[in-house]
Write a structure and sequence with these properties.
134 residues
Length: 134
């Protein structure tokens, strides 16, 4: 456990150092853009253009991040749906064969399940929420 905490702390420190270096680099990049614009426009306008470019870049990064997250979620949902379909096929065939082999046990199980769902409101709500998610 101590080893894992040490590895996490080292990774966080390295990530924090990298973020600080990137922020410093972007600051120098904006300053360089400001100095390059000074030859063509007034200082306040050069600062405004450099800041605007930085904000546009930040917005593009945020939009790219959202697009990547949406793609990952869509892919995970697709994989989960495929896995659920496979389980449904396997378990469905197994349950049908068990039900046909044991009709009395199937009837008793169905009656007890119906009684439990009817008698326990919390169970009804859980089942309703499960069915609504699909």
């Amino acid at each position: 456990m101590h080893r894992m905490a040490t590895r996490i702390a080292i990774r966080i420190a390295a990530l924090l150092a990298a973020v600080i270096m990137v922020v410093c680099g972007l600051g120098f990049l904006c300053f360089a853009a400001y100095l390059a614009l000074l030859d063509r426009v007034s200082p306040p306008l050069a600062a405004l253009i450099a800041a605007g470019a930085a904000f546009i870049l930040a917005g593009m990064i945020v939009l790219l991040g959202r697009a990547i997250i949406a793609l990952i979620r869509r892919r995970q949902r697709h994989d989960a749906d495929r896995l659920a379909e496979t389980f449904r096929e396997l378990l469905g065939d197994e349950l049908v064969s068990l039900a046909t082999e044991n009709p009395h046990a199937t009837l008793l199980t169905s009656l007890l399940t119906g009684f439990a769902v009817g008698a326990v409101p919390e169970l009804r709500h859980v089942l309703r929420d499960l069915l609504r998610k699909r």
